[in-house]
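Run log, item B.
One chain of 68 residues. Sequence copied directly from the ordering sheet:
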Amino acid sequence: MARVARVTEIVAGSPDSFDGAIKTGFERACKTLRGITGVRVLEQRIKVADNKMVEYRVRMEIIFVLEG
C-alpha cells in the first residue's frame, strides 16, 4: 500500500532552551496532527530584549502521513 505524507512548518518558543522550544512545538503538533512520522529543525533563533536572551525559538517541519 502506498502512503502519502505531508509537511507542515511551525514556529515554537521557550524561555529556557532550544530543546524546550522543540518539545513545546512537538507537543502542540500532536494535539492537532495524527500520524506524525518525523520532525526536522530548520532554524534556531534567540529573541533578545534589554541585552538579555529572553526566548529560544525554533522553526521546524512536522512530517505526517495523510489518512484515507
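Observations after the first pass:
- Residues 5-65 form a domain with the Dodecin subunit-like fold (CATH 3.30.1660.10).
- The first helix runs from residue 18 to 32.
Flagged for discussion on Thursday.
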